[in-house]
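Quick one - inputs below.
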Amino acid sequence: MHAPDPPLNRQTLERLERLALRWQQSFQGLLGGQNVSRFAGVGHEFLDHRQFHHGDDLRSVNWRAYLRLERLFLKMFRTEPRTPVRILLDTSESMACGYSGEAPGEAKFTYACRLAAALTYVGLVRLETIVLHPFGETMAESFRAQGGRHRYARAAQFIRGLETGGRSDFHRAVRQFCSGVLSPGLVVVMSDFLDESDCAEALQQLADQGHELHLAQIAGPDDRMPPWEGELELLDAESGELRRVQMDRASALEYAEAYDEYCRTIERAALKNNGRYLHLTTDVPLEDALYGAVMASGAVSLH
Amino acid sequence: MGLLNLTLGQLLAVFVPLTGLLVALYFYDRSRRRVVVSTLRFWPKRPAAGN
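Output:
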């Protein structure tokens, strides 16, 4: 399955200009961006005073305080970090499933690509740095977008070039990500989290490295409540394994219960590390999700 | 014999294909459908009846 072309139309992009990405932790980072940091550095907003030490910049000395107290105090300013926002986008084959076309909605991959494009645009408008990391069994080549909204076209072109394929191994991909990305920051993961490895453990590894986790679990309408009944031959999209089942109402409820329990595991992994979790189904239009569930979670807000 | 004022031959000519169609539809409904799913993780492991 190929990514949507274009991921977002002009009207949607115009509406996204009112939004800004938000996160909770403070990260040591470059200058720029919109999120307030608790770290002192170069900036305009006053943070605190401290004792002057040899080698400090004389331009930051509070000379008024010196005239009154005859002691040197240094003014510290709040730095505004342009922490790279890293978006991990699942491109495994399971992202092409979960939508049979009978109900309203779209494939998970299409939805995830459009969501990634939306967050990239929101970030670029606010001068954030966005790094897109597609992953399947391993991390694929990433793309860094920075420098304002006019850089969005290149990011959209990168997203358009993505396609689903292969199995997902989130644990392996995260290990590879952690070995390559040493500076902690905001990590947005867009996936169905439906691979055989333990996703919760991999998420913990990300959190242990200091990243703030924002998880968007994308689900198709058929992923939570299968609409089929009778004798089914199920084919796993990633492994190719076949299983024959007799499906009835009770089996469907049993399935939904197991699915919900798994989602709660992923949610706990995010919340216990002060992250955010969103379960997005593709039958909710993307703009409604952005201005509804995503905004309610605090991951984006009106600027 | 005069149901619907038809002869036996006419009656068979109407109902035999109709019955055949209904039987075919029944077997079609009972046949296994192959469905591609994201994962087998949440599906019951017990096999379907008759396997």
